[in-house]
DNA sequence: CGGGTATTTGACGACTGTCAACGCCAGTGG
DNA sequence: CCACTGGCGTTGACAGTCGTCAAATACCCG
């Protein structure tokens, strides 16, 4: 559980003005408005691997755009385990929460060194009022997350271990591919089997057995923080993975 | 699976102008605006129990406010089973989907006779532009649904059968109670054990065994479409149910 | 009263978790 | 260069939760 010794609030260090356009959220807002707002409101944050961006029940002050690295969003469970909710990849929008409500419902931990742009909720709300298009876009982002969340519920409730793992791996592979980060049929892949287990509702031990079966059947090759998809049709069948759905959700 | 014989599109019959204020979504919009918009845009729909409001992959044209009855939102699974996503109760907002994207990701079926207010997506989008407060409010509704969805993921991935069922029953009881629809520690409860199984990722048979154990232990009494909570503390412990969380999400 | 729907029961087995231990590998420090 | 350390992956034995199949019973509504 949350160690009471360490500060619950991570210590991201805001740096110079964020150099990148916060693609995920602000792409629909006029450039002028962004420039105006970001000039004094946006900070840049760096996290080391395993560092938390925020934790459940913290008063959340910022929303973020992930620029570099992978971040795990998860819900801590009562017994000390955790349920992975989503893996945020570069370009993703993180940490929006109900306006006027104090606390975040989940935790966010960097899986790799990560670079993020932060934006205060307070200002975000103001921008929503000034820029209706932004609000519509935000609603769409949320709706996309929602569809992904429902897909996960289907997996957790109705698929067996192999199906859940196969789906997760293919989803991550294609999300990376869609942002041009694949090398052929391989991607950089920083997830440990423990994290895969967290995301699929499995134990490490069982995750390991599934991965080994996949490897033995020549479906994939996963080692040294790289994942190579060797037999996508087979994996897609096992995981009931539909590329068109993922492209519609995460493609653009 | 979906019987190819019956029309995939249900046949809701729009009636006279919706007499109720669409509380869930439009409560923040000026009364004048609502009157203006609803005068010619909103229709009323009636469903019988088991009738579908819409089905997955249908081109969705409407969003709805549920006025009377219970509606099950679910994702059909490949093997003909289904994963329940959420139970919509009177007052809930249903069916918003990504603007500009054609198809709904899930299905919605009435569990009881139901009465709904429909609102075309096209007009909703226009209203979002005109009424920024509405957009913020919509984002909040979505965020609330998102938190509920994450809670479900935690349950499906990390709790065992008894915990999932206990949580579901308490959640539904308190959601009904919060809208004044409880009689003491009992509510009208139209869910069959099959639907409970759909929502908790269990089979009917196992759901039945869990329910019987609860009954044998004197934790609840469930029969004749009524649910009575006899030992809430025990159920809350089993389901890791936190009333404050649910009140924060569904209260108001 | 009859037919369909919902609940219940039993036997059986598979999937997955638990516990405990071992091995591999990279980074670190001597 | 080597020993040490911690993280991660791997293995085996075993238990139990939960699914499957099949059938009987209870309930509801026309």
Architecture overview:
In chain A, the strands form 3 sheets. A 4-stranded antiparallel beta sheet of chain A has the order 1-8-3-6. A 4-stranded antiparallel beta sheet of chain A has the order 2-7-4-5. Chain A is built from 9 helices and 12 strands. In chain A, helix 3 packs across helix 4 and helix 6 crosses helix 7. The longest helix of chain A has 27 residues. Helices cover 42% and strands 21% of the residues of chain A. The N terminus of chain A is likely disordered. Chain A is globular, with a radius of gyration of 18 Å. In chain A, strand 4 and strand 5 form a beta hairpin. Chain A starts with 22 loop residues before the first helix and ends with a helix. Chain A is an alpha+beta fold and 252 residues long. Chains A and B meet through strand 5, helix 3 and helix 4 of A and strand 5, helix 3 and helix 4 of B.
Please render the helix and strand layout as text:
Two copies of one chain form a homodimer.
Chain A: H1 23-26, H2 31-41, E1 43-47, E2 52-54, E3 62-68, E4 71-76, E5 82-88, E6 93-94, E7 107-110, E8 114-120, H3 121-130, H4 132-158, H5 161-178, E9 182-183, E10 186-188, H6 193-200, H7 204-216, E11 220-223, E12 226-229, H8 232-239, H9 243-250
Antiparallel strand pairs in A: 1-8, 2-7, 3-6, 3-8, 4-5, 4-7, 9-10, 10-12, 11-12
Helix pairs in contact in A: 3-4, 5-6, 5-8, 5-9, 6-7
The structure holds a DNA duplex (30 and 30 nucleotides).
């Amino acid at each position: 559980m949350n160690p009471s010794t360490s500060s619950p609030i991570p210590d991201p260090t805001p740096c110079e003005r964020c150099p990148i356009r916060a693609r995920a959220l602000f792409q629909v807002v006029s450039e002028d408005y962004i420039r105006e707002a970001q000039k004094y409101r946006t900070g840049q944050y760096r996290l080391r691997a395993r560092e938390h961006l925020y934790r459940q029940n913290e008063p959340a002050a910022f929303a973020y755009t992930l620029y570099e690295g992978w971040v795990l969003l998860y819900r801590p469970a009562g017994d000390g385990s955790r349920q992975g909710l989503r893996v945020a990849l570069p370009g993703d929008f993180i940490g929006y929460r109900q306006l006027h409500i104090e606390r975040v419902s989940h935790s966010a931990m960097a899986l790799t060194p990560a670079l993020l742009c932060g934006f205060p909720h307070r200002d975000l709300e103001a921008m929503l009022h000034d820029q209706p298009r932004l609000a519509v876009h935000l609603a769409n982002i949320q709706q996309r997350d929602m569809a992904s969340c429902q897909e996960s519920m289907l997996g957790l409730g109705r698929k067996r271990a192999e199906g859940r793992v196969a789906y997760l791996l293919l989803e991550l592979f294609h999300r990376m591919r869609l942002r041009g980060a694949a090398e052929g049929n391989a991607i950089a892949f920083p997830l440990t089997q423990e994290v895969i287990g967290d995301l699929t509702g499995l134990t490490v031990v069982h995750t390991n057995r599934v991965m080994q079966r996949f490897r033995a059947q020549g479906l994939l090759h996963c080692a040294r923080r790289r994942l190579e998809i060797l037999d996508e049709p087979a994996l897609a069948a096992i995981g009931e993975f539909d590329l068109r759905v993922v492209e519609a959700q995460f493609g653009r």
